[in-house]
Structures are given as structure tokens and as C-alpha cells.
């Protein structure tokens, strides 16, 4: 009766979780955690690698686009340089500017009166310009070049400008006209938006001297890739020549080479600032082309570009025209968009470029790979759990259950029951010992007293085995002197070994739990530190941005000072040149005075010679008069025969008188000339002294202006160095701001990663607690 009750209690106790089930649950949880974490890591690694590949492909495509634009720009500048270096074009351009300059000046006055740029459209003025030989020759020489380049390479612009930025002649607006070419449109002022022309003519801040300029710039026809080169004729700056083309060809070439769709957007401010004659084409369907502060301009696929969602274009504003990535589903296809800034020749932002990559197949493949990975992971978890559970069941649970079953049968009185020896380990040894004991029991159970004693020992042993099956490994079987004592001793040894194993599992679980708690605490500390670091980085970024603004103001002030210094230097140089001209003029005056003085002295010398000659003439006249008188006396003596001779003698006398009178008048005039010549000589001597004195004063002024020019040049150079240094500081500060932005993004990602780590650690702590609770079900020594 007692034996039956004990057996019933043992069966009741075994209705709970058995040793095998508890071990199976613990092993399953550990396997799920390990393989689950590994799966998540693999999927995250695959996603990160794919994102990096996408970014590299988009950045490579952007580099291809920039390279094509640079090739087109350099080609345009090379054509412009060839035109600017052509001697015939130089001479024709210079002649046309010199001959037609007043007409263009009058056009500038008209524009100033009307308050807006206006092309020359007066018929009389147009006829006068068209009939100009230099303009006609220039037109007939350059128009065929443009039309050949346009038909062959798609060239968009070819024109000449005069300083500062007035259109002198648009070659690209000409058309064939018989044996020649039409004049086209020209004459309007471009200085309000054509900054490449201003720079090439040396009329833009930072471009004080005429120089070649190339790059992207907005015009009335939209953005163009321009090359502008100054034209000189015999060392004199005449104006500039420009070649340019649109961005359509590089856009389509980049799309064809990369397999991506390329779309250009311009800032609304640029469109509003320029009288853009293509705005009607871009916005021909109402507001469809407007996206906030951006306006659609052109695309390799116009339908696709116009259909871009506002959220994609909104990313342009969010990134301030900088780099940005965004995924989008459009009509069942997966697209990845990247935005890049679009800058002009001076580095100013004029819009953005959107590169769109079709990743439908790639996303599907990646999704399939993730599903396969997850499926394999689940399969791995299942196989691992099954393998571990099966191993536990085969190696531990089945031998224990078999021993418990055999002992139960013996407790019910079946002494023929035997344990299966399944291995040669401790469990196999215990099963063999039990079988040997049962064999001996059968031979020794001859008396009721021995049978009852054995039955009690077996019942006690059964209770211990039942407790062990319920997880209590602290119970020890009583070791008696009989055969059952050997079985009890073997069972105690088996339970001791199992206690050690369970103790090791419990210690490992506690260490895992402790480590997880430490990781959790470290994650929380790291999360707090990362958040604080993010706040510090944000504050630092604001400070650096303010510093960049202050440095930019310093750069602007330095640049203004540089302009003023350059003006002072130019004024000093101009004054120096004027003083040189005055010195040259004074030297000329001095030379002229000295030459005049020498001539006056020679005149005095010649007047003295004239006096000598006059004196001789006077003497000759007196002698002639005397001879005439003697002749008249002799004629009177001759009577009738000497009458004719008397008349001749009278005429000779009169001639002698007139000669003497003329000689006296000449002598008076020569005397007056000599007096005036002396006074002139004295006056010219004084003038010479005064001129030499003034030349010395002017030379002193020239030396002073030389010193002023030298000081102004040094000051301008120093201010220029300050300006360059300030600009470098501005660029450095901007780079620091960008770097701080990147650090801020990384810090945000670090905060997110720390938070994810903390959550994962929390899960690990929970799993560790579950494992500890599962192991705690076993009661062991210590």
C-alpha cells in the first residue's frame, strides 16, 4: 500500500516540466538568440554594402557629367582663343570699334534713359553699321566659321563684346544674305548678368586685368558652357570674343554613358534675376515646372523629369543644393535619386542636378537575397534546435528516462525489468550496474524480510530518481550494505556529475547576464555621452558658421580696400604719366626757346651784316651822285651834243638819291631790329632760366609721384594678400562647417547605433534572465 502511494506521488510530481524539456527550452533560446543576431548582422551588412555601391555609382555618374561639361567648356575657350589671336580679326574688330564707337555710346545713353537694356533697332543706325567696311569684312569672315561649327558640333554662341559688357556683334544671329551675311541682333548691355564678359574685360571684382574666363554661366537663353577671351590689337585692349554652348549635349551624353536619367533644376532666384526668354518654354504648362525655390530646366528624359515627385525635388532645398540620396517608387519602379550642386564659373550655386538610377531589378534581387538569408537563418535555427534537442534527448534524457522507467517497473514488483545500456559513459555504467543489481536481487530475494528491505531501498531510490526527474539534484540515494547500495552509489555519482554540469550552465548564464548588464549600462552611458557630444557639435557648428560669416565680412572689406588701393595706384600712375608728359613738354619748350634764341642771335648777326652792306650802298650812292653831278657839268659844257647825256646823268643822280634814301631807311630798320633783337635775346634768356626752373620743380613732383605710386603699389599688394588670405580663411571656415556637418551626421548615426545597441542589449539581458530562470529550476548543491 505504501509502495503504491509513493509511486503515485512520484507520477504526480513528474507531470510538470521534465529535465529534458527544460534543457531543450534553454538550448533553443540560446540558439535563437545567436543565429538571430547573426542574421540581423548579415542583413545589415548587405544593406550597408549595397548603399555604398549605389552612392559610388551615382557619384561616378556625376563625375562623368562634370567631365563632359569641362570638355565642352575647354573646347569653346580654345575656339575663342583662336579667334582672339587671329591678326586679321584683331585688326577688323579694332577698326570697327573705332569707327562705330559713337553709335554704341549713343545706344548706351538711350538704355540709360529707358532704364533697361535695348538692342540697336534704329533703321538708319543699322544701315550705317551694316555699311561699315570693317564690320562687313568681320561679318563675312566669322559667320561661315560659326555656322560650320554649329552644323558639325552643335555650337550655340559666337559673339564679340566691347567693355564693359556690351554686345558688339552676335555672330550666331547672322543668316546668309546672298554672297554675304545679315547683321543679326546686337548693341544691348549685358553687364547685369553676363559676369564672364565683365571678368574677361577686367571689369569684375577679382578680375582687375583682362583675362581668359571659362565655365558655366546663366544667360537669357539659359545656362551655357562659355569660353570668353580678351582681344588685343597692337597691345591695346579692344574687347572680348566668346564661344558657348548649351548643357543639353553633355546632359544626354552623360545619360547615355551611365544609363541614368539626368535632370537640371535652376534656382527661382536666378530665373527671376535674368530676363529669361526661355521661361515660357520651361513653364509652358502652367506651374508644372515649379518646385518651391527651384524651376525645372532640362532633362535627358523630359517626361520623366517633369514627373519627378515634389518630395524628390524638395530634397534639393533640404540639402541646400548639396549631395543627397532618396529612394522613390514611381509607377511600380524603384528609383534612387541623388542631388548635386550646380555652380557657375565663380563657384556660386545656380541650381542642382538630379541623377536618377533605376534599381528595380537590384532592389528585387536584394530583397530576394534578404529573404533567402532570413530563410536560411530560420532553417539553421530550426536545424540547430532540433540537433541540440535530439543530442540532449539521445545522450542525456533518454538514458535517464529509461532508468526511471525501469525503476518504476521494479517498484511495481517487476524484478525482471532491465535498463538499456545505450553508451559506455556514466549513464551506460549506471544502467549496467542497475541491471547487475537486479540480477542479483532475483537470486537473493528468497525471504520476505530481504524482499521487504530491498523493496524499501528500491522505493527510496525511486523517490530520489523521481526528484531528479523533476529537477531536484540535491537528493542523495541511501547507500546500504546490500545490492541496492551499489545502485544508489552509482545514481549519486551520476547526479553529482549532472549537478556539476548544471552548475556550470548556471555560472555561464550568470556571467552572460552580468556581461549583458554591463553592456546595457555602458550603452546607456554611451548614449548619454553621444547625445551630449551631438549637442556640443551642434553648438560648435553654429560658432564656426558665425566665424565664417565674420571672416567673409573681413574678406569683403579687404576686397573693397584692395579696389580702393588699386584706384589710388592707378591715379598715382596716371599722375606720374601726366608729370612725365609735362616734363617732356617743358623740355620741348626749353629746346624751342633755345632754338629761337639762337635764331634771334643769328638774326642780330645778319642785321650787323646788313648794316655793313647798307653802309657800302650809301657810299656807292654818294659816289654815284658825285659822278652824276660831274657828268651833268660835263654835259652842260658840251652844249647841244651833251644834252642826252645830261638827261641820263640826271636819272642816275635821282637813282643815287633814291638809293641813298632807301639805304637810310634800311639802316633805321636794321637799327630797330638790332635793338629789338637784343631785347628778345635778354627776354629769351630769362624764359630759358624760368623753363629750367619749372623743369626742376616738375621733376621733383614726378619723383614724389613715383614714391606715391611705389607706396600705393605696395599697399595694393599687401591688401591683395590680405584679401586672398581672408578668402582662404573663408574657404577654410566653409570646409570646417561642412566637416562639422559631417561630424554631426556621424554623431546622430552614432546616437542611433547606440540606441539600437542598447535595445539589443536589453534583449540579451532578457534572454539571459530567461536562461538563468530556466537553470534555476534545477536544485543543486552550493
Write a concise synopsis of the structure shown:
Helices cover 71% and strands 11% of the residues. The chain is of the alpha+beta class.
Rg result: 58 Å
Shape: rod-shaped
Number of strands: 13
The chain-level structural class is alpha+beta
What is the chain-wise order of helices and strands? HHHHHEEEEHEEEHEHHEEHHEEEHHHHH
Q: Quick check: average pLDDT?
A: 73
Largest sheet: 6 strands, antiparallel
Discrete helix count: 16
Number of domains: 3
- The first-to-last residue Cα distance is 36 Å
Query: Taking strands numbered 1, 2, ... along the chain, how are they ordered across the largest sheet?
Result: 9-10-8-13-12-11
Strand content: 5-15%
* Proportion in helices: over 70%
| Low-confidence blocks of residues | 9-15, 277-281, 283-287
Give an overview in words.
The chain has 782 residues and is of the alpha+beta class. The protein folds into 3 domains: 2-59 and 367-471; 60-358, no CATH class; 533-776, Methyl-accepting chemotaxis protein (Helix Hairpins), CATH 1.10.287. Helix content is 71%, strand content 11%. Strands 9-10-8-13-12-11 form a 6-stranded antiparallel beta sheet. A 5-stranded antiparallel beta sheet has the order 2-1-7-6-5. It is rod-shaped.
Amino acid at each position: 500500500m505504501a509502495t503504491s502511494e509513493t509511486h503515485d506521488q512520484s507520477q504526480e510530481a513528474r507531470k510538470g516540466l521534465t529535465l529534458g524539456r527544460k534543457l531543450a527550452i534553454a538550448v533553443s533560446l540560446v540558439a535563437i538568440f545567436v543565429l538571430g543576431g547573426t542574421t540581423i548582422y548579415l542583413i545589415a551588412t548587405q544593406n550597408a554594402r549595397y548603399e555604398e555601391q549605389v552612392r559610388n555609382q551615382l557619384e561616378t555618374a556625376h563625375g562623368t557629367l562634370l567631365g563632359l561639361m569641362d570638355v565642352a567648356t575647354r573646347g569653346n575657350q580654345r575656339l575663342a582663343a583662336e579667334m582672339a589671336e587671329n591678326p586679321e580679326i584683331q585688326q577688323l574688330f579694332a577698326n570697327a570699334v573705332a569707327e562705330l564707337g559713337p553709335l554704341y555710346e549713343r545706344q548706351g545713353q538711350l538704355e540709360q534713359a529707358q532704364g533697361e537694356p535695348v538692342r540697336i533697332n534704329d533703321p538708319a543706325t543699322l544701315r550705317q553699321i551694316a555699311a561699315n567696311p570693317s564690320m562687313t569684312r568681320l561679318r563675312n569672315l566669322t559667320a561661315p566659321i560659326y555656322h560650320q561649327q554649329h552644323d558639325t558640333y552643335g555650337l550655340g554662341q559666337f559673339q564679340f563684346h566691347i567693355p564693359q559688357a556690351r554686345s558688339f556683334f552676335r555672330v550666331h544671329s547672322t543668316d546668309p544674305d546672298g554672297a554675304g551675311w545679315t547683321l543679326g541682333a546686337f548693341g544691348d548691355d549685358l553687364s547685369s548678368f553676363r559676369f564672364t564678359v565683365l571678368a574677361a574685360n577686367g571689369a569684375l571684382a577679382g578680375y582687375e586685368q583682362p583675362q581668359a574666363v571659362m565655365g558655366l554661366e546663366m544667360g537669357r537663353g539659359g545656362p551655357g558652357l562659355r569660353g570668353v577671351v580678351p582681344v588685343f590689337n597692337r597691345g591695346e585692349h579692344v574687347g572680348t570674343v566668346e564661344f558657348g554652348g548649351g548643357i543639353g549635349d553633355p546632359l544626354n551624353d552623360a545619360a547615355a554613358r551611365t544609363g541614368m536619367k539626368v535632370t537640371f533644376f535652376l534656382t527661382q532666384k536666378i530665373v527671376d534675376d535674368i530676363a529669361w526668354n526661355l521661361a515660357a518654354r520651361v513653364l509652358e504648362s502652367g506651374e508644372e515646372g515649379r518646385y518651391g525655390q527651384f524651376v525645372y530646366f532640362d532633362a535627358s528624359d523630359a517626361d520623366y523629369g517633369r514627373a519627378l515627385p515634389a518630395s524628390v525635388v524638395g530634397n534639393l532645398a533640404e540639402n541646400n543644393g548639396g549631395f543627397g540620396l532618396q529612394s522613390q517608387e514611381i509607377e511600380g519602379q524603384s528609383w534612387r535619386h541623388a542631388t548635386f550642386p550646380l555652380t557657375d564659373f565663380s563657384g556660386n550655386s545656380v541650381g542642382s542636378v538630379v541623377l536618377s538610377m533605376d534599381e528595380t531589378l537590384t532592389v528585387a534581387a536584394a530583397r530576394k537575397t534578404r529573404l533567402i538569408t532570413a530563410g536560411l537563418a530560420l532553417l539553421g535555427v530550426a536545424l540547430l534546435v532540433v540537433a541540440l534537442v535530439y543530442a540532449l534527448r539521445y545522450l542525456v534524457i533518454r538514458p535517464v528516462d529509461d532508468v526511471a522507467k525501469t525503476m518504476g517497473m521494479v517498484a511495481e514488483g517487476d524484478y525482471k525489468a532491465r535498463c538499456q545500456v545505450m553508451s559506455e559513459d556514466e549513464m551506460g555504467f549506471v544502467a549496467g550496474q542497475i541491471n547487475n543489481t537486479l540480477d542479483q536481487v532475483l537470486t537473493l530475494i528468497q525471504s520476505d524480510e530481504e524482499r521487504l528491505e530491498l523493496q524499501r531501498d528500491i522505493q527510496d531510490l525511486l523517490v530520489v530518481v523521481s526528484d531528479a526527474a523533476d529537477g531536484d539534484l540535491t537528493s542523495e540515494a541511501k547507500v546500504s550494505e546490500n545490492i541496492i547500495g551499489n545502485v544508489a552509489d552509482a545514481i549519486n555519482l551520476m547526479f553529482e556529475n549532472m549537478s556539476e554540469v548544471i552548475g556550470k550552465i548556471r555560472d555561464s548564464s550568470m556571467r552572460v547576464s552580468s556581461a549583458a548588464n554591463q553592456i546595457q549600462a555602458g550603452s546607456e552611458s554611451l548614449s548619454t555621452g553621444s547625445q551630449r557630444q551631438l549637442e556640443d557639435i551642434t553648438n560648435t557648428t553654429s560658432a564656426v558658421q558665425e566665424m565664417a560669416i565674420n571672416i567673409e565680412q573681413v574678406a569683403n572689406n579687404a576686397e573693397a580696400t584692395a579696389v580702393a588701393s588699386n584706384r589710388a595706384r592707378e591715379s598715382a600712375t596716371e599722375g606720374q604719366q601726366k608729370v612725365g608728359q609735362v616734363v617732356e613738354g617743358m623740355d620741348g619748350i626749353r629746346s624751342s626757346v633755345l632754338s629761337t634764341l639762337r635764331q634771334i642771335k643769328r638774326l642780330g648777326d645778319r642785321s650787323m651784316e646788313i648794316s655793313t652792306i647798307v653802309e657800302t650802298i650809301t657810299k656807292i650812292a654818294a659816289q654815284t651822285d658825285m659822278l652824276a653831278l660831274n657828268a651833268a657839268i660835263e654835259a652842260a659844257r658840251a652844249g647841244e651834243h651833251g644834252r642826252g647825256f645830261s638827261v641820263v646823268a640826271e636819272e642816275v643822280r635821282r637813282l643815287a638819291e633814291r638809293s641813298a634814301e632807301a639805304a637810310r631807311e634800311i639802316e633805321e630798320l636794321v637799327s630797330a631790329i638790332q635793338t629789338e633783337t637784343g631785347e628778345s635775346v635778354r627776354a629769351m634768356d630769362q624764359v630759358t632760366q624760368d623753363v629750367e626752373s619749372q623743369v626742376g620743380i616738375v621733376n621733383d613732383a614726378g619723383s614724389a609721384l613715383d614714391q606715391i605710386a611705389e607706396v600705393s603699389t605696395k599697399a595694393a599688394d599687401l591688401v591683395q594678400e590680405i584679401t586672398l588670405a581672408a578668402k582662404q580663411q573663408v574657404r577654410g571656415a566653409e570646409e570646417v562647417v561642412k566637416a562639422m556637418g559631417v561630424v554631426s551626421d556621424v554623431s546622430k548615426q552614432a546616437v542611433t547605433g547606440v540606441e539600437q545597441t542598447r535595445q539589443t542589449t536589453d534583449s540579451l539581458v532578457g534572454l539571459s534572465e530567461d536562461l538563468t530562470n530556466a537553470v534555476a529550476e534545477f536544485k543543486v548543491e552550493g
